[in-house]
């Protein structure tokens, strides 16, 4: 009897739990059985492995083969276990030295010819493998993704034969080296936007403190144009943050190319709640997780189904999304910055006038109220800034080329945002939007006059305790942008002026 043990990784949300492939050869009628909660794609691996071994000129043992994927209570899906199963059979039959498998993990799908194919979700496995101090062998198609983790020793292979040659020390596999992807998409610049100084100022505050923001105004005033330029003024992602973003995209089979650039996701308003938060029979990340460490832009906010918008409430507070299924509970990161845009009414022209100074809006008061009630109070309460974007005048639209050059570029705004973020992290270790109530009391103390001003505003507007705390956070961000040592009345007043829907 022969027994071999091979190490690999499963896929469970953003995690990659260790899986031990135990291969046992015993006497009896030739057969191959796989146990350990394998799903259909895993069960079918026995046919792929058999053909791959034979076509690679290896001997497929004519014995009773039992393969156990431990732990047995962890569901296994996909074709990522093919290479590990093949190596286990070769080691158990003495065709590959078993000692060479102890410090190596294997992930990859086998073709019938013995070639190695890439799989989704490799990066989380690469990170986890590095923490266990083992090397990892992946398909050549996954080499670029594996190279994003510097702490793991990874090798890329093109076929089963090349993997066996590496283990026999006859021909070493190429070592995967770290190479950060180059940004291939140019982020739009604020220099291209005429006017809208109030909205630009609000977006600068939002970027500096990671605050959620709602832009509203008539059609064609530049709401989408402004929102799409928010990533251009946000600080570049740190190496660790970029790896987190790439890991989430890896689970969906995406190649994240905009390294160190905050992701920008803009789902259509017909998106379902599953598309937004993630899920499915084999749960995958949704748009809020793909926007992790970046921006989630919801254009035409009231056109989204109300039950779809309501699923955003918990992730906006916690920064994670929990997806429960009968077999497992999965957790995906969702620390995103919400940017929403909407019209003030169904026709879009409330408070807007025509060239003859006539009211353009044709909506009744009931229609306007019904339209705005599509956004619930609790969700609106979680949006820190409510900013009107008004139509530009003809003079502003027809600015000469020289005047356009005077528009402030995204680079200049980003320098101020980075300086404000630096103040926040030196003071409290996080962005202002992520402050807990305890941290808020410690780091954002108000003077007597400031507390009196805010208290009167809260009573007059009937705001909630959550809105009270969020106004203080915004005021602290405004103070950080001006490098003020503490929150002043002017900062409180500006923060209150940026919550227009409450007024």
Q: How many DSSP H or I helices?
A: 22
Beta-strand portion reads 15-25%
Structural class: alpha/beta
Output the strand order for the largest sheet.
11-14-17-10-18
Cα distance spanning the termini: 79 Å
The radius of gyration is 28 Å
The global form is: elongated
Task: Please outline what is shown here.
This protein has helices at 40-43, 45-55, 82-92, 122-131, 143-146, 160-167, 197-209, 223-227, 239-251, 273-277, 287-290, 306-310, 313-318, 365-372, 377-381, 394-397, 401-405, 410-427, 437-443, 448-461, 465-481, 489-497; strands at residues 2-9, 18-26, 31-35, 64-70, 104-106, 109-110, 116-117, 135-139, 154-157, 213-216, 264-265, 278-279, 284-285, 295-298, 320-324, 329-333, 337-342, 385-388. By secondary structure, the protein is an alpha/beta fold.
Description:
With 503 residues, the chain is an alpha/beta fold. Helix content is 37%, strand content 16%. The chain is built from 22 helices and 18 strands.
Name the features.
503 residues; alpha/beta; five-stranded parallel sheet; 22 helices; 16% strand; elongated
Give me the secondary-structure topology.
Layout: E1 2-9, E2 18-26, E3 31-35, H1 40-43, H2 45-55, E4 64-70, H3 82-92, E5 104-106, E6 109-110, E7 116-117, H4 122-131, E8 135-139, H5 143-146, E9 154-157, H6 160-167, H7 197-209, E10 213-216, H8 223-227, H9 239-251, E11 264-265, H10 273-277, E12 278-279, E13 284-285, H11 287-290, E14 295-298, H12 306-310, H13 313-318, E15 320-324, E16 329-333, E17 337-342, H14 365-372, H15 377-381, E18 385-388, H16 394-397, H17 401-405, H18 410-427, H19 437-443, H20 448-461, H21 465-481, H22 489-497
Parallel strand pairs: 3-4, 5-8, 8-9, 10-17, 10-18, 11-14, 14-17
Antiparallel strand pairs: 1-2, 2-4, 6-7, 12-13, 15-16
Helix pairs in contact: 2-3, 7-18, 7-21, 20-22, 21-22
């Amino acid at each position: 009897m022969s027994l071999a043990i091979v190490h690999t990784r499963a896929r469970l949300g953003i995690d990659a739990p260790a899986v031990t492939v135990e291969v046992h050869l015993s006497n009896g009628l030739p057969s191959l059985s796989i146990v350990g909660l394998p799903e259909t794609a895993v069960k079918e691996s026995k046919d792929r492995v058999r053909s791959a071994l034979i076509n690679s000129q290896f001997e497929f043992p004519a014995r009773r083969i039992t393969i156990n994927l431990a732990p047995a209570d962890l569901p296994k899906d996909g074709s990522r276990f093919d290479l590990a199963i093949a190596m286990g059979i070769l080691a158990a039959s003495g065709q590959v030295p078993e000692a060479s498998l102890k410090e190596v993990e294997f992930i990859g799908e086998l073709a019938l010819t013995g070639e190695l194919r890439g799989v989704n979700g490799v990066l989380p496995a690469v990170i986890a493998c590095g923490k266990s101090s083992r090397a990892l062998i992946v398909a050549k198609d996954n080499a670029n993704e594996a190279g994003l983790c510097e702490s793991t020793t990874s090798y890329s292979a093109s076929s089963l034969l090349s993997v066996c040659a590496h283990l026999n020390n006859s021909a070493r596999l190429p070592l995967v080296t770290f190479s950060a992807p180059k940004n291939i998409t140019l982020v739009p610049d604020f220099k291209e936007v005429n006017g809208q100084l109030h909205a630009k100022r609000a977006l600068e505050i939002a970027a500096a403190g990671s605050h959620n923001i709602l832009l509203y105004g008539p059609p064609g005033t530049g709401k989408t144009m402004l929102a799409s330029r928010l990533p251009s003024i946000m600080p570049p992602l740190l190496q660790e943050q970029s790896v987190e973003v790439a890991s989430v995209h890896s689970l969906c089979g995406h190649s994240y190319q905009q390294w160190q650039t905050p992701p920008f996701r803009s789902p259509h308003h017909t998106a379902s709640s599953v598309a937004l938060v993630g899920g499915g029979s084999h749960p995958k990340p949704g748009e809020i997780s793909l926007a992790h460490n970046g921006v989630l832009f919801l254009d035409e906010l009231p056109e989204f189904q109300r039950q779809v918008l309501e699923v955003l409430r918990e992730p906006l507070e916690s920064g994670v999304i929990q997806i429960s299924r009968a077999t497992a509970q999965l957790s995906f990161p969702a620390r995103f910055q919400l940017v929403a845009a909407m019209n003030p009414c169904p026709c879009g022209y409330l408070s807007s006038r025509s060239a003859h100074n006539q009211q353009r809006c044709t909506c009744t008061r009931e229609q306007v109220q019904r339209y705005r009630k599509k956004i619930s109070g609790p969700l609106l309460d979680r949006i820190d800034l409510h900013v009107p974007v008004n139509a530009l005048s003809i003079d502003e639209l027809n600015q000469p080329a020289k005047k356009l050059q005077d528009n402030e570029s995204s680079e200049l705004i980003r320098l101020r945002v980075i300086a404000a973020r630096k103040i926040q992290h030196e003071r409290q270790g996080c962005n202002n939007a992520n402050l807990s109530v305890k941290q808020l009391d410690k780091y954002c103390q108000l003077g007597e006059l400031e507390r009196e001003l805010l208290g009167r505003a809260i009573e007059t507007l009937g705001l909630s305790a959550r809105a009270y705390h969020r106004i203080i956070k915004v005021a602290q961000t405004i103070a950080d942008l001006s490098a003020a040592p503490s929150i002043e009345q002017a900062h409180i007043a500006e923060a209150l002026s940026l919550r227009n829907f409450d007024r």
